[in-house]
Automatic annotation (TrEMBL):
One of its GO terms (molecular function) is actin filament binding. Belongs to the TRAFAC class myosin-kinesin ATPase superfamily. Myosin family. It comes from Pongo abelii. The lineage of its organism: Eukaryota, Metazoa, Chordata, Craniata, Vertebrata. This is MYO5C isoform 5. It comes from the Eukaryota.
Amino acid sequence: MAVAELYTQYNRVWIPDPEEVWKSAEIAKDYRVGDKVLRLLLEDGTELDYSVNPESLPPLRNPDILVGENDLTALSYLHEPAVLHNLRIRFAESKLIYTYSGIILVAMNPYKQLPIYGDAIIHAYSGQNMGDMDPHIFAVAEEAYKQMARWEI
């Protein structure tokens, strides 16, 4: 698929922002190779002519259906703004501190005690495969234990 086909009206992108780091914007007019600006509509309704060249097009935003994914590798576009947005949604809105990135567990520090480490949670993750339940440090520990036991001599 040609790059210009992705930068069409109504698709969304991320643009750098000095306060928010990344700001979401909707493409207001199809991009054509050679265009010097990308016409954008910011979420507050402001129109913006964003300077671009084929090597500096802004990162595309993932579809809303992927917002809050529990595994970053499931995102259509995996780049800094997509990762930060997904982690923010999971942490700030859903109060979920763990997210997978493939076999890696990403943890956000909530700076408070959470009731997610008791015996009931340990037993819930015991015997489960990583990915069968929500991301959790106990899922990673269970997977490590299974792998270790598999190689036991």
